[in-house]
Amino acid sequence: MARLPKLKPCPFCGERDAFVERADFSSAYVFCNSCSGKGPTECQESDYEETPGERAAIHAWNKRKRASKNKEAV
Ligand SMILES: [Zn+2]
């Protein structure tokens, strides 16, 4: 089982308080506990993911620019 990439600090508030939240049966997003910021909801990439969409959601989260303050961007 490949290890998942680490979550970068929240692009909205800079805290390391984010975790992957399941959106539905085949997708997930990253949610920040500190500021309630959300990353984009991403779909499952393979059948072997423990949490479907987890890997894609982490990638999307880590790509986020710190400058963006717009939480409604999804
Ligand atoms: Zn945050």
Quick summary:
By secondary structure, the protein is an alpha+beta fold. The chain is built from one helix and three strands.
What does this protein look like?
- By secondary structure, the protein is an alpha+beta fold.
- The protein has one domain (1-68).
- The chain has one helix at residues 54-63, and strands spanning 18-24, 27-32, 42-43.
- A 3-stranded antiparallel sheet has the order 1-2-3, with helices on one face.
- The longest helix is centred in the C-terminal third of the chain and has 10 residues, at 54-63.
- It is globular, with a radius of gyration of 12 Å.
- It starts with 17 loop residues before the first strand and ends in an 11-residue tail after the last helix.
- The mean pLDDT is 87.
- Residues 10, 12-13, 15, 32, 34-35, 37 line the site of zinc ion.
- This is Restriction alleviation protein, Lar family.
- Pfam families: Lar_restr_allev (PF14354).
